[in-house]
Write a structure and sequence with these properties.
Elements: E1 6-11, H1 17-27, E2 32-37, H2 40-48, H3 53-68, E3 73-76, H4 82-91, E4 96-97, H5 101-107, E5 112-118, H6 124-138, E6 142-148, H7 152-157, H8 161-173, E7 180-183, H9 192-195, E8 203-205, H10 206-218
Parallel strand pairs: 1-2, 1-3, 3-4, 5-6, 5-7, 7-8
Helix pairs in contact: 1-10, 3-4, 5-6, 5-10
Length: 219
């Protein structure tokens, strides 16, 4: 019997691990997932203030390691490293997904206004650029309303997940004039259930979108 696909999940912060694991369990439990944490990536980006050539090389090496470990696909879970992930994708022979690309594809499937909520400020500029590029390629017009949920990530890193979820839910509840609300970080996904009580708008999360795309590619 053929083994289910093995998917390597590459994390720059451990807070992304529980949400994506939960999404696989709920939506594709047969998949074999392997978690690889390299939290020095986040520290390096914060210290350098940009993606350096050395940082991009590290992503390529990570991708090559996953190939040698018999991965069938790679999913990166931190949204602040788009260019580095793209270079990794060019240099390995298996599917490599950026954390948000599957959700972006859902967002730009039609014209509309999107409230894009994030908890990590450095990730917002690259996410906005990627969504706009994706919309242009799709031929749709998406009006983005990017917003930082102040204090949420600090609460999560301080082991106050309830506060993290409440801050995100409160922000979701204030969103008006949009067609859809997108929670941009993997670590934000656990707030969806609470947030859904405060809005009638659809809420997309990156883990669920990513698992759905991987299953379509490999399942």
């Amino acid at each position: 019997m053929k083994k289910p696909p093995k998917i390597y999940l590459i994390h720059a912060a451990d807070v992304a691990m529980p949400p994506i694991t939960a999404s696989f369990r709920a939506n594709w439990p047969e998949a074999r997932i392997v978690n690889l944490l390299e939290d020095g990536l986040m520290t390096g980006l914060a210290e350098d203030g940009r993606l350096t050539d050395a940082m991009i090389d590290r992503f390529v090496h990570i991708g090559q390691y996953c190939v040698k470990a018999s991965a069938n696909a790679i999913l990166f879970t931190c949204s602040a490293f788009g260019v580095a992930i793209e270079e990794c994708r060019r240099q390995v022979s298996i599917p490599v997904l950026k954390p948000n690309e599957a959700m972006y594809e859902e967002l730009v499937a039609r014209d509309g206004t999107v409230s894009l909520l994030a908890t990590f400020a450095p990730s917002l500029p690259s996410m906005v650029a990627e969504i706009e590029s994706c919309a242009q390629a799709k031929g749709t017009k998406v009006n983005l309303k990017p917003q930082l949920v102040e204090g949420a990530l600090d609460a999560l890193l301080a082991h106050r997940p309830d506060e993290h979820n409440e801050l995100i839910a409160a922000s979701v509840g204030k969103q008006n004039g949009c067609d859809v609300i997108a929670l941009a970080q993997f670590s934000m996904a656990p707030a969806k259930a609470l947030a859904a009580k405060l809005t009638s708008k659809p809420i997309l999360t990156t883990p669920d979108s990513a698992v759905a795309k991987l299953r379509a590619l490999l399942g």
